[in-house]
Design brief:
The protein is an alpha/beta fold. It folds into two domains: 173 residues, Periplasmic binding protein-like II (D-Maltodextrin-Binding Protein, domain 2), CATH 3.40.190; 154 residues, D-Maltodextrin-Binding Protein, domain 2 (3-Layer(aba) Sandwich), CATH 3.40.190.10. The protein is built from 15 helices and 14 strands. The strands form three sheets. Strands 3, 4, 5, 6, 8, 9, 10, 11 and 14 form a nine-stranded mixed beta sheet that branches. A hairpin with a 4-residue loop joins β12 and β13. α3 packs parallel to α4. The protein is elongated, with a radius of gyration of 21 Å.
Length: 338
């Protein structure tokens, strides 16, 4: 470990339960943090920004935390991992949500402002490649994904037209004769970076191509727009965090993905056992200077890593960290505070 308000419906329902529990359990001596540790009520404000993928987790943690500490104001925003790190390294936020590890140039930008980020892994996620339920394709290989999303695909406007390129790089062939309409995350998104790094980068390097997606797709920072394109367009295609696809249910098709070991469905079991090829860690990054300056930061992160706080990841349909990795996150935070 290095020192270094999309799910409104879910959050609202869970918040109601949380506030009832908090109201019943509160007293003048403080409340329980969910991990069995008493907490004193705190006040102040927190500014959190970054990944749209991590935003639902942090938003629910914030709602629960405010139920125990109504004197704290917590603002959570999800413009994207890269945009979040820019704010964070400028000292404008206390905590940055991230769906990828911080990059060296971001570490350098933080260092220039005297910030040494504390990295804390909080959950696991998978990226789902989504399309229309009527699409005849069930599985897409990394070669297929490169043919559809990669920089050499500029101008290709149908699934079938991408087939030759897909076969050339090891795809399974047989893409349907259907107009291709791609809506996917933009470059500011950690989801964009993770998709390229995990699924496409090796092919891009082999073919000496830039590590960017084709420039003629529609970029959207709103995962629900991506889902709507897949659900409402016969040849729709995109990729999102697993939870967004799961929430969409059978209005979209989540394609199985072949990363070289056969077609694997995105599921909790396959993410935890490591067989689903497009999976990743989710993080929060804490500004250690803010821990000293802002009395709300330390108790908030303490709560985030408590049993009750960390359960928020599963409650918004991400995957819980294995016990040993959760303990490593807790130890990293305790060591950073020391």
């Amino acid at each position: 470990m290095r020192r270094l308000k999309k799910h409104a419906g879910i959050v609202a329902g869970l918040l109601a339960l949380t506030l009832v529990a908090a109201a019943c359990g509160g007293d003048d001596e403080g409340s329980d943090d969910g991990g069995g540790n008493p907490t004193e009520e705190v006040s102040g404000s927190l500014n959190i920004s970054g990944s749209s993928t991590v935003e639902p987790v942090t938003s629910l943690v914030a709602e629960k935390f405010q139920g125990i500490n109504p004197g704290v104001e917590v603002a959570v925003d999800g413009p994207g991992t890269s945009d979040g790190f820019e704010l964070f390294c400028n000292g404008e936020t206390d905590i940055s949500d991230a769906s990828r590890p911080i990059e060296q140039e971001e570490i350098d930008a933080c260092a220039a402002n005297g910030i040494e980020p504390i990295e804390i892994e909080v959950a696991l996620d998978a990226l789902s490649v989504v399309g229309n339920p009527a699409n005849s394709v069930t599985c897409l290989s990394f070669g297929d994904l490169y043919a559809l999303f990669g920089p050499e695909s500029e101008g290709i406007d149908s699934w079938a037209a991408a087939d030759d390129l897909a076969v050339e790089v090891g795809g399974n062939g047989g893409l349907p004769d259907e107009a291709l309409t791609i809506v996917a995350p933009g470059e500011e998104s950690g989801t964009y970076g993770s998709f390229i790094e995990i699924a496409l980068e090796a092919i891009m390097e082999e073919r000496k191509q830039d590590t960017v997606l084709r420039p003629d797709y529609q970029a959207s920072a709103d995962d629900n727009v991506i889902i709507d394109n897949a659900a409402g367009t016969a040849g729709g295609l995109g990729f999102v965090g697993f939870a967004f696809a799961a929430n969409a249910g059978d209005t979209v098709k989540s394609f199985e993905v072949d990363g070289g070991d056969g077609c694997i469905v995105a599921s909790e079991e396959n993410v935890l056992n490591g067989t689903y090829p497009i999976s990743r860690s989710l993080f929060i990054y804490v500004n250690p200077n803010k821990v000293t300056e802002n009395p709300a930061v330390e108790p908030f992160v303490d709560y985030y890593l408590s049993d009750e706080g960390i359960a928020s990841a599963v409650e918004v349909q991400y995957f819980a960290l294995p016990a040993d990795r959760l303990e490593a996150s807790r130890q990293a935070w305790e060591s950073a505070k020391a």
